[in-house]
Structures are given as structure tokens and as C-alpha cells.
Amino acid sequence: MIGRPMHSYPVYYEQPYLTSLEATVVSITDKGVILDRTICYPEGGGQSGDQGLVGGCTLVDTTKDDEHTIYHHVENPTFKEGEKVLIELDWEHRYHFMQMHTAQHVASGLLFSHFGIQTVSVHQGQSILTIETDAQQIAPETCHALEDLVNEQVLASHAVHYEVHTQASAKQLDLRRSIKVEGDGVRLVVVEDVDTVACGGLHVARTGEIELFHYAGQEKIRSHVRLIFTVGKTAKQMIRRTEAVAAELGTLFSSPLEQLVAVATQAVEQASLDKRELQKAEERIAALELDKRVQKAAVKDGVPVLVWDVEADLSLKDIGLAVLSYPDLALCAAKQDGQRVLWLIALQGRASELLDFSQAKQALLATINAKGGGKSPLYQGSGTGDREALFSAFRERLA
Ligand SMILES: [Zn+2]
Hints:
Elements: E1 9-10, E2 20-29, E3 32-35, E4 37-38, E5 52-54, E6 57-64, E7 70-74, E8 84-89, H1 91-115, E9 119-124, E10 129-133, H2 140-156, E11 160-165, H3 167-171, E12 186-191, E13 195-198, E14 213-221, E15 224-231, H4 232-252, H5 257-296, E16 298-300, E17 303-309, H6 316-323, E18 329-337, E19 340-348, H7 351-354, H8 357-366, E20 371-375, E21 378-383, H9 387-397
Parallel strand pairs: 1-4, 17-18
Antiparallel strand pairs: 2-3, 2-8, 5-6, 5-8, 6-7, 9-10, 10-15, 11-12, 12-13, 14-15, 16-17, 18-19, 19-21, 20-21
């Protein structure tokens, strides 16, 4: 047995392209399954843990602890300690991470050598690679120049190889990134002619395997620019999806691509105008409906007094607005809105002399378990119960 069998000896550094391997189960613990050796890369350094099958059971994640013990998170393992099991990687998942991770080396190296921009942190999601930079802004032209530069290195298909250094000899190389591991035996990853850093991750053998590097946008984080990229097959899928969306929008707006933004902008502006026109019309209808009722309303001391069981298609807000054009008006309006009763009481002009809302509030609102408030002349809120109970109470006080 080689290495440290208790710790799931990592075979992935020697053979990063191995997709299956037979191993022996050392122990099954609460933290996961320990094997004598493994090809499963544990989560770390912005690279997610491997997935796949162990002994035919689903491997959902791979992690490691501070002692470098690798744990395989296997769902309902059917194997026992001492048994031999076959590890089968979800190779598509793993290879995409190797592509993205290697692309990140190339991109961070070129960002530094061509634009003097440092990488602060990196993250590889299921579909996107993000690089947080130390820059406060990066022009889109720079991002596209970087995209072109990386794709040139992809086309050149440089070899990626490893060198083991002492701390002293590694420091002499004046690398763009400080070395985070302690002790000698520092593993340097060299993308030939492009970049050298100390790294414990997994990489493709040549930059050509990155296939395609695509700039997909940027966002601000902690006042830094974070660049977003897609890589390989995922980049192609994303470009195709974006194209399909643009085509669908083109059909929807009956517009060629070149005019699509202008046509869509105009449509959005028109919709906004139409909405304002509709709002005006609704306010006008509410005012006419109110007027019709005010003409027939009872009058007390020269003030029209009115209760109104409001139709579903009229809004209390519009009615409240319409009230303000009367010199004197006492109105109690309510409408059903699902389970709730919405209410509006208006005491415009001399109506406030006939009814002091602050005194009558509690008794009036209790009729429909309502809450709410407002300031003279409009009060509103919501409750539950029989609207007629509120109307009767209002009428009685103004009889
Ligand atoms: Zn790396």
C-alpha cells in the first residue's frame, strides 16, 4: 500500500484523467466514507467536490478535513468496511471543472500580465466561472480583449505541467500570487508561456482542452469588479440560449435583431403611456359614478350623506380622489376584496362638523373588525364581515 491508506490516498494528482478506479473501503463514518485510495477530488480552492458512484451508490459530494482525510458522501451505502468498491466519476461534471479551473489560471495570468489587474478570489459554479479582481472598474472593451487573449492561448494549446519547488526556489520565481501552503514540496502549476502559480487543484493537460472562453458580464462586489465567464460546452450552450431568446423576442416584436432594442423600448414606452391613459379613464369613471350617487344622496344640514357598496371594477383610491372635488360630502364606501372588506370614509368640508371621525372611529370600525386610519378628509383600511353593518352605523350617526 502506498501513501497514507487511512486518508483516502489521492490518485487524482498522478492520474487526473482516470474516470474509474477500484478501491477498498477503510471505514464508514458520520463524516463520510474513507477509501484506501481515491480519484474523487474534494471541494476546495473554488473547485467543487466530485460526484458519481461508489460501489454503485450515489456519491453526492467529496470533502476533506484539516488532516487531509478525504470523505466520500455516499447516499445509503450498501457496502461494508473491507469490501472492494468501484469508484465511477461523473466525468462531465469533473472535466468541466478542470476546464474552468485551467481557464481561470490563464485568464488571471493574462489579466495581470496585460492589464496589471490582480485576482482577489475565484469561484466555479455549475455553469459559470467568476473572478473577483482588485479593480474598481473594467471597461467592456478590456473584458473582450481578455476574452480574445485567452482564446488565442486556447488555440495555441500550451502544455500544462507541474514543478515541485522549495519555498525558497518558488519565491525566487516572483509569482503573481503568494504561496499559501507551508513547507517545501510546493506544487507549481505551469501553463507554458502564460502563467505559473502554486496550486493544489486539477487542470487539463493542454489549454486547447478549454475549447472556448466566453466573457458573460460583470458585477460589483465589495467595490471590486467581479468578472463572469463561461467555458467549453457550457459557453456554447449559453451563447445558443441567448441567441434563441433574441430570436424569440425578434418574432414577438416583429423586428430584425439590429432594431430589436429600439422596437422593444418603444413598445415598453407605449405600454406605459397606455397604462397612464387607462388610469385617467378609471379615475374619470369613478368621478362620474360618485357624482351620480351624490345627486340622489340624502342631505343633512346642506351636506350630502352617502353610503356606497362599491363595484369590483372601481377602486377606492380613485373614489377618494374624486371626493376632493366636492366642497362638502360625507361618504362611507366599502368593497369586497377576496376575504377582506376594504373601506373608505370621507368627511369633506363641513361633513367633519357633523361627524368627528376620531371619536366615532372605534365604534364604526368594530362593525367589520377593521383596522386603518388616515387624515382628514380621507380615512381607509380593511376588515372582515358584513359591509351593511358598517353602512348602518355610519347612517345612524348622520341621520
Ligand atoms: Zn489550479
